[in-house]
Amino acid sequence: EAAALVLSVNNIEVVYDHVILVLKGVSLEVPRGHIVALLGANGAGKTTTLKAISNLLHAERGEVTKGSILFDGVEVKSLSPNDLVRRGCIQVMEGRRAFAHLTVEENLLTGAFTRRDGKSAIAQDLERVYAYFPRLAERRGSTAGYTSGGEQQMCVIGRALMSRPKMILLDEPSMGLAPRIVEEIFEIVKDLNVKEGVSFLLAEQNTNMALRYASHGYILENGRVVMDGEARTLASNEDVKEFYLGVA
Ligand code: ATP
């Protein structure tokens, strides 16, 4: 059973600054090879959940005070953020933080920082990333800060791919992008999922789009999962339609 799940989050609580309880018992699962959507309004706790998984809460004065998180069967608490990347769990932060002053290609190469295999394997993977993102191939020599928002989002996903992940935690990739570009990015995510077997936990406010690509979804409200199920079932649920569809 455990092998079928790349990620299992079991009843976690997260507290910021020792007193602010933000996650109040969140459980979720990502079956290996699936795209799972984590949905909810601004402030519901999506980013906090992703940071708890990738063990990045300390920098925010946050702490998991209850529950457990298993990535590939291993308790993440016992792993440093870099260990997690080496084991195949990587987070793509909200706000597409490409290194603005580096070229697109330099940005991609920074994604290989935890790898110990040789230059030729890394060069091969660079070409693999360009095959998925032809726009990045065209812009490889451009300063990232001067590329479009969509290209920067592609750049940070491409950078994550350079670590050869099993799972990518993708935080609001659609934010601020035109629907056509969002669709282009989600099509590539689907492609990576199908062809490379990468699992995704996709935090999104764009419920509509996320449920078109995910197999399962969880809806967070005020630090709790209030609904979950198959993406198709959620997309046709009346409450979901009323409160979440058509808002993004
Ligand atoms: P967003 O779409 O803005 O990313 P979200 O669903 O990801 O929203 P979080 O960013 O996880 O939500 O925030 C959940 C709650 O935790 C919010 O009420 C937020 O104000 C609070 N919060 C987030 N970071 C901190 C922090 N470092 N210290 C205190 N409270 C925080």
TrEMBL record:
Cross-referenced SMART domains: AAA
SUPFAM superfamilies per record: P-loop containing nucleoside triphosphate hydrolases
Q: Name one GO molecular function term.
A: ATP binding
Output the GO biological process annotations, alphabetical, semicolon-separated.
L-amino acid transport
Similarity field: Belongs to the ABC transporter superfamily.
Q: Its biological function?
A: Involved in beta-(1-->2)glucan export. Transmembrane domains (TMD) form a pore in the inner membrane and the ATP-binding domain (NBD) is responsible for energy generation.
Specify the protein name. ABC transporter ATP-binding protein
Q: Per the UniProt entry, what species is this protein from, by scientific name?
A: Bradyrhizobium forestalis
